[in-house]
Structure formats: C-alpha cells, structure tokens
Amino acid sequence: MQNIMIVGVGGQGTLLASRILGNVAIQAGYDVKVSEVHGMSQRGGSVVTYVKYGEKVHSPIIDKGEADIILAFEMLEAYRALPFLKKGGKMIVNNQKIDPMPVITGAMEYPENIEGKLKEKVDLTIADALSLALEAGNAKTVNVVLIGIMAKNTNIKYEQWIETIKTTVPEKLLEVNLKAFDLGYNH
Amino acid sequence: MKQLMLGNAAVARGAYEAGVNVVASYPGTPSTEITENMVKYEDVYVEWSPNEKVAAEVAIGASIAGARSMSCMKHVGLNVMADPVFTVSYIGANGGLVFCVADDPGMHSSQNEQDSRHYAEASKIMMLEPSDSEECKEFTKQAFALSEEYDTPVFIRLSTRVSHSQSLVELNDRENIELKPYEKNIAKNVMMPGNAIKRHVVVEERIKNLRELSENSPLNKVEMNGSKIGVITSGISYMYAKEALGDSVNYLKLGIVYPLCEDLIKKFCAECEIVYVVEELDNYIEKHTKALGLKVIGKEVFTLLGEYTPAMIKKAVLKEDGAPSVEIEEQIPVRPPVMCPGCPHRGVFYVLKKLGLTVSGDIGCYTLGAVAPLASVDTTICMGASVSAALGMAKARGPEFNKKLVSVIGDSTFMHSGITGLVDIVYNKGNNTVIILDNSITGMTGHQDNPTTGYTIRGEKTNQVNLITLCKGIGVENIVVADPFDLKNFEKIVKEETEREAPSVIIAQRPCALLKSVKYTGHCKVTDKCKNCKMCMKIGCPAISVKNNAVVIDTNLCNGCGLCMNVCPFEAIEKEEN
Asked: How close is the nearest chain A Cα to the Cα of B33, in Å?
C-alpha cells in the first residue's frame, strides 16, 4: 500500500492535487481512499489530505510513521508533518513560507533552517515550485508542479499521469498544466 | 466503471438512485456536500432552508404527501430539528423519509462533539451507519426502502471521515418510484394526545419489529477469523479496526446502530473469549452490551474524546506500538484558521476591539473574531445565540453594561435563528445593538445561498428577504447600513447605536472576499513613510507581518482590499496594480 500525505495551508490548492493523485491511482487499477478537510480549517489553517492506494484500503487516514511520501506545499507544514513520515520515506517540499498567526502577532518565531533540520533526518527534495509554475506560464500550477515531482517517486507510469491530467484539468488550462507537470517531473 | 466519490456525494447518489423527490437542508460541516451534490440531479427538488427545523419539516411534509424525501444536517443541526423529529417518529412515513446526520469527532469545524446515536434511541427512530462511500450509497437506498416498509423515518449517521473521504462507488440507475397516494388520516397525522397515545403503541411495536429485522439483516456483518478476540464496531471505527487488526480478530460490524441486534451481540460474545467495543465518542454500544450482562472492554482502554486512529486501536487491543516516527525537537507555531485577506469581518472586529466592547458572538467565519490579534468576541454558543444571549447579559447587568455590548451575527445565521432573538429584544424592551454581518453569502460552509442572497441552491433568481424591511417589521426603528471597511464611519455608527436607549440594528455590508463577483485588484505595499508604529498589525491580516523589525506585505497573499491603508495613520501603505 502507498500512503501519501499532502499538507499545506488552506487556499493553496491541495485539494486539486489530491484529486489528481486519487484519479491516477484508480486508473492504474488500485483501490483508493482520499481523506480531505473541509470547513473551518480551510480558512488559512493547516490542511492535511491523505491519499492511500493499494490492493485494498480500509482506513482513509494515515498514522504517525506511516506515510511513504509527504508532499508539502509550505515549509512549516512540512516540518509539522515530519512525525508522519515512514522510516525511509520521501519528503517533497515547496520552498514557500507562509507565516502563521502566532508568528504574525510576534508570539512565536517561524522556525529557522527547516530545510537543514529536515535534511538531517529524511530523504528530502526541496523545490521552488512557484518559479517552475511561472515558467510553465501560470502561478496557479504550483500544485501540478509538485505532483510532477512526486510522480517520479511513485510506481505509477508517466503516461498514466498524463492521461489523468488530461481528464481532470479543463481543456483551456491543459497545456499550461502539462508543461507544469513536466517541469516538476524533470526537476 | 467505479468512481472515486466523497461519502457525502455517495449519500446524494444513493438518494437519487432511490428515487428521492424532495431534499431540504441547512448547510453545516461535515454534511454540506450531500445537499450540494443533489443539485446534479435535475429531477429532484432541492432547497437550502433557513434552518434545520424548517428543512426537516419540509421533508416531513413531502413524505406525508407521498414523496421520498430527505433532510441532511450536522450533529448540532439535529438539535435544532429535534422537535419535529421526535413527533414524526409517531407519525411515521408515507413516502420514504430519511434524516442524514453527520457527526464531527475531533471537532474539525464544530462547537461541540456530541454523539447523534443517542437521538436515535431517544426518538425511537432506526439508525444506519455506513463505513465508506459505497456503503453510504447502499445504506441510503436501504434507508428509503426500510422507511416505507416499516412506516418510520430512518436516520443515517455519518462522521467527518466518512463524509469527507473519497472511496470507490459503483453507480446504478435511478429507480422509478411513483408518488404514494395522499390520504387524509387524522389518527396518524394529527399528533394530539388522543391520537399520539395510540401511535406510541405503534412506535414500540415497530421498534420490536425492527430489532427482529436487525438480528438477521445483512447490514450487520459477522466476520469470524478463528480468533479468541472479538471486536464490535461500526462506521469509520470499523475501517480503523480492520486496518489495525486485519484478520487477527473476529468482527461484528454493526450497520444498524439502533435498534441494536441484541441476540446477535450475545451470540458473538459467546463465541469470543475477549470482546472489545470500538466506537468513537460515547460508549453507546458498550453501555447497551453491558446492560445485556455481557463482559466487554470499551472505554476502559479507549477514549471518549476526539477521533480514533488505527494505531490507537492496535495499541489498545494487541498492545503493539505504532510505527516508529521522527519527532520534532522544538516547539513550533500552530497554524489556526484565520480570516482570509480581504475578509469584510476584519473591519468590524477591529472597531469593536478598539472600542473595548463586549461582543456576543455567533457561528460562522466571524467566530474567528475571537482569535488574536483581534480577540474581540466574548461568547460563542450556538446558531442565533448572539442576539438572545446579549439580551440576557443586558438584563443581568443593566443599561450601562448594555452600552458597551453588541451582538454580531452573519446574514445566514440571522435568517437561521437570529430573528426570534431580535423579536425578544423588541418585545421585552431590550435596548441592544445587533450587528448583522451581511457578506452576501453563507461563508464558512463554502458559499451557499440563503434567503438574503436572492438566489436558490440551483442558482436561480428568487425573492430576496430584505434585512431592513424585516427588522423594521419586527419593530426595530433604528437600522443603519454601513461599510465595515470605512472604519471611521463604522466606529461612529457603533458608538451612536450602542449609546441609544432603543433596540438598533447595524447592517455591516460588504461581500465575502472569496466571492467571484468581488474583484479587488493589485496589492498593497509599505512605503518609506512607514514609522513602524505597527497599527496595521492590529487587523490580523495574514498578508502583513514583521520581518527584521519592518512591516512587510506578502504580495502573494494580499488581494488589495485596502483595509490596512485605512488603518495606517501615516498614509504609508499604497496600492500597486499588478
């Protein structure tokens, strides 16, 4: 079974990423469960989505120490999710930093050198997904860039991913999204 | 081909396939998407009702009139609709009648963690509990059939992880269900003592019959794996247990949580040496099992609080630890939800905080007005309580206290249950000031229309409830409409209205920044006129922070709403077009 956790800040587009991932796993013939968060936490709070696929999936959620891959849209959220990574798991992190309210109000500091701390402990890929998204032609494709980076680390074939993006993304945004995916995939 | 589907969408699909005709609900996380998904099906009448009680009554009326009907709500919404529910239990159902309630263990988006299963028992209404999306669809179809067969409303109970998880669902066609004939039946449909006394007898008989049904129903499943350990469970807890314990234990998975299959439970317990009851929230199944004289282990090893996980169950039952994990070696800042950049509520709370008022709060995005740095809201209880609780506060502490007191309530929440509180203020000579936060939409649950928006759930234009005429009709003479981003004027109005010795309503009008019709452009920028006074930090905008002791605005987050420019005393913030 593959356990993938997508973490970020409400409003960053993590839900679309989990939809693409869920759909590609079905098309590859797996049983799939995706667990999302709706409602209050979506308002700029920490958001966590679980995507699990394999022969048979029971629980839609992932426990500590059980994620094969953590895909993080934001640095602090990556750090927060660290205890969920499986021993030998892979972490893919967008280098964006968004201050949470305790940092904005000055009650706490944004942790320093998260990249270094994560690197010490886990197999880490850091990406400037926003630059790649802009290179693809649309800042909003950050999520697809990150999906691209992750795709390379799964057992699902490249063609399958392309096929799924074609069926998930609206026609007029297809080209830019395919470009974003490739930029991520070849990162 | 099977489709990946949200549990909530699967309930909607199940209702559609079962030939449902009428669905009426009020939005509430985690139940909202059930009713939203009904819109996909053109041959169903769907509505957002003003509140859950009204919604339930619409569904009940439709059922009496012969249609298959459904109402969906979150756990606390069930409190609002409890009144008709307890009595329709006596009336029963003509067309199939289903109430779908979604609990929120862990309180992802709720003010309490109540367990709705108690309602099934208290109202003597059958309750089914699915574990994944496929079961959501199938159980919903079954619920309609059982409702008609046994002349009873049927509850479906969901929880956040069932509602908001996607799993595979096989789609079928819609059944062609004719309206049942409507016949006047006073003895069955008019619940006054003489009739209700007789109907209660029917209800008790019905529960006996349903208990018999549940002993043999395929909705309850026994899985014997040759173990001495048995697990009795239902809903999402079954999935967690299955993942944690696999085939190493036997299972009794309850699809019908009321009435419980007592004989089957006895039989299952007799075949196992040790039996655990795994259920989130209250010890509902455990208590009933113990009352049968059976020895089971429940909350001795499981918590009454929050959500469960497979690792938690593994630890409790097999005494095995979960997977090893890398811990974070420092305290890191939490990231609670915040009001969005451009949120109209921010201006309101900035002013209320500045004036040092006591704020009787309500349920919606604006509950976030209790979070630092705005930290303006004093109380949040339930939908509508901001208005009536403020009257209580004023009556308790007198007129001087009342001059420093306001209620804040959203447009949708005011429609839901704020109106009656305002009637109370007028009727009982309160001098309260009520601020209606009119952001033109139901925000927190993800943009649903309501009676004040002028559109139906299907996006069709409709009659719009006018807040001003409504408040006037109630008898409020002082009604002011103001833009909460015009801070000076808004402050002036709040001061005037709180001073006034008469009931007053301030309608703070500015649409939700996430609405497509709202077009803020560009972004704000701090210029070198900045004196570093940090006034702009007081509005708690997530786009504004202090870096190296200087205020900066994150251009990716800022939507150019310009509220910070109104706060800055040195005109040091400017707008830059993209």
From this structure: 10
In this structure, the answer to whether residues B136 and B102 fall within a common structural domain is yes
Using the structure block, give the residue that is written with the tokens 């630092």. Answer: B372
Residues from chain A that touch B32, judged by Cβ atoms under 8 A, are 38
Q: Helical H runs in B444-517?
A: 467-474, 487-499
Residue B340 within any structural domain of the chain: no
What are B389-423's pLDDT values in tens digits?
999 999 999 999 999 999 999 999 999 999 999 99
Dist CA B15 CA B35 (whole Å): 10
Name the residue among A66, A105, A130 with its Cβ closest to that of B373: A105
CATH number of the domain enclosing B405 = 3.40.50.970
Say yes or no: B238 and B112 in one domain: no
Do residues B335 and B300 touch, judged by C-beta distance below 8 A? no
Give the number of domains in chain B.
Answer: 4
% of chain B residues with pLDDT over 90: 95
Q: Which of A21, A75, A19, A20 is nearest to A46 (CA)?
A: A75
Beta-carbon contacts of B176 under 8 Å, excluding residues fewer than 6 positions away, are B19
**Cβ contact (<8 Å) for B337 and A10?**
yes
Over the stretch B532-542, which tens digit does the pLDDT of each residue have? 999 999 999 99
Rg of chain A over CA atoms, in angstroms?
16
What the block records as the tokens of B407 is 């209620």
Q: Check: CB of residue A93 under 8 Å from CB of residue A72.
A: yes
Is the domain of B356 the same as that of B261? no
Cβ neighbours for B483, distance < 8 A, ≥ 6 positions apart: B347, B489, B490, B508, B509, B510
Give the three-state DSSP class for B116: coil
Closest residue in B to A37 (Cα) is B164
- Interface contact A80-B242, CB threshold 8 A: no
- How long a stretch of residues is chain B? 578
Q: What is the pTM of this model?
A: 0.96
Mind listing the domains of chain A with CATH numbers?
Answer: 2-185 (3.40.920.10)
Contact state of A26 with B336 under an 8 Å Cβ cutoff: no
Question: Which residues on chain A are in Cβ contact (under 8 Å) with B444?
Answer: 39-40, 43
Closest CA to B235 of B271, B272, B284, B292: B284
Q: Are residues B281 and B200 in the same domain?
A: no
Q: C-alpha angle B540/B544/B546, rounded to 5°?
A: 105
Nearest to A39 among B168, B322, B444 (CB): B444
On whether both B228 and B285 belong to a single domain, the answer is yes
Token digits of residue B454: 């002028």
B17 by DSSP, 3-state: which?
Answer: helix
Chain centroid offset of residue A9 CA: 11
Question: Cα–Cα distance between B75 and B110 in angstroms, integer?
Answer: 9
CA-to-CA distance for B514 and B440, rounded, in angstroms? 11
Residue A79's pLDDT band (cuts 50, 70, 90): very high
d(CA B152, CA B85): 11
* Nearest CA distance, A175 vs chain B (angstrom): 24
pLDDT at B378: 98
Helix and strand totals (H; E) in chain B: 22, 22
Answer yes or no: is B518 within a domain.
no
Which residue range(s) make up the domain with B430?
345-509
DSSP states of A119-174 as a string? Answer: HHHSEEEEE-HHHHHHHHT-GGGHHHHHHHHHHTTSSS-HHHHHHHHHHHS-GGGH
Predicted complex ipTM: 0.94
